[in-house]
């Protein structure tokens, strides 16, 4: 036990002379909900008391700056880089340096991690609204605070229907509204979007499609014709019934046979000679 205590007390003096300290391992930089989190683990054999400093620079500046809030990190071993990575189109380099007792060990450049925030953006959101023989498409950023970043990018829209020969591809700039005209009524159309930016060298697969059906053109002619035919039939039937019941053009009614006989006899008596 005494020997172990002696070794630990001399460790901060021995390590600077040797100039080695296990470097951090399993370094990862992830983007989650537009937050950038750097994580790492202590290397095998890392002695107690070691802490880490995180620095960043850009591909153009090459001057390292400490990340605010990520100095003398011990546990948990992570660093939030969201505020440091403020320009989404910039390419950043991040490194993690291990220190013990005010001494820096190893080469922190060995842990450099490149990261370009714009390459980890989600695709813009699509909204599709049909109207009379046309289709309106709007693009929106996932978060409103990112609208300016999305507006500088270029996209490609794909519109398709059940007719594969009429699939269209349109390259666009920024988050504008777009409208397709002269579409076939009653047909279902689907729209998908992808990144297609040569300047930022950003390309992606198409998003899941958003679909809508263009309203069919309604013609009133068949309905009017049917109603007129029905009206003619009803009027004709009513006239027939009125005629047959004698309300219109009444027929001359025949007298009963008894009355006919009496009338004949009376006529004969009146015409006989006296």
UniProtKB/TrEMBL annotation:
GO terms for molecular function: cytokine receptor activity. One of its GO terms (cellular component) is plasma membrane. Residues 1-19 form the signal peptide. SUPFAM superfamilies: Fibronectin type III. The chain crosses the membrane at residues 223-243. Coiled coil: none annotated. Keywords: Membrane, Signal, Transmembrane, Transmembrane helix. InterPro entries: FN3_dom (IPR003961), FN3_sf (IPR036116), Ig-like_fold (IPR013783), Interferon/interleukin_rcp_dom (IPR015373), Type-II_Cytokine-TF_Rcpt (IPR050650). Residues 117-217 form the Fibronectin type-III domain. PANTHER family: CYTOKINE RECEPTOR FAMILY MEMBER B12-RELATED (PTHR20859:SF93), INTERFERON/INTERLEUKIN RECEPTOR (PTHR20859). This is Interferon alpha/beta receptor 2-like. The gene is LOC102204971.
């Amino acid at each position: 036990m005494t020997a172990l205590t002696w070794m630990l007390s001399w460790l901060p003096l021995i390590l600077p002379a040797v100039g080695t300290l296990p470097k951090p391992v399993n370094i990862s930089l992830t983007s989650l909900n537009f937050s950038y989190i750097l994580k790492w683990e202590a290397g095998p054999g890392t002695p107690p008391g070691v802490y880490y400093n995180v620095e960043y620079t850009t591909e153009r500046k090459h001057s390292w700056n400490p990340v605010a809030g990520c100095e003398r990190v011990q546990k948990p071993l992570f660093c939030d880089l969201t505020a440091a990575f403020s320009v989404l189109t910039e390419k950043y380099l991040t490194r993690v340096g291990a220190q013990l007792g005010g001494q820096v060990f190893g080469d922190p450049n060995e842990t450099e991690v490149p990261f370009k925030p714009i390459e980890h953006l989600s695709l813009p959101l699509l909204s599709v609204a049909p109207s009379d023989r046309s289709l309106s498409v709007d693009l929106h950023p996932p978060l409103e605070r990112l609208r300016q970043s999305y507006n500088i990018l270029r996209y490609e829209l794909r519109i398709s229907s059940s007719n594969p020969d009429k699939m269209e591809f349109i390259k666009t700039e920024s988050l504008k509204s777009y409208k397709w005209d002269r579409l076939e009524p009653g047909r279902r159309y689907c729209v998908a979007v992808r990144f297609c930016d040569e300047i930022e060298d950003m390309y992606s697969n198409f998003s899941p499609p958003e679909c809508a059906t263009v309203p069919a053109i309604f013609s009133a002619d068949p309905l009017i014709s049917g109603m007129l035919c029905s009206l003619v039939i009803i009027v004709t039937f009513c006239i027939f019934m009125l005629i047959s019941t004698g309300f219109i053009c009444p027929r001359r009614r025949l007298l009963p046979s008894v009355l006919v006989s009496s009338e004949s006899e009376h006529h004969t008596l009146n015409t006989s000679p006296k």
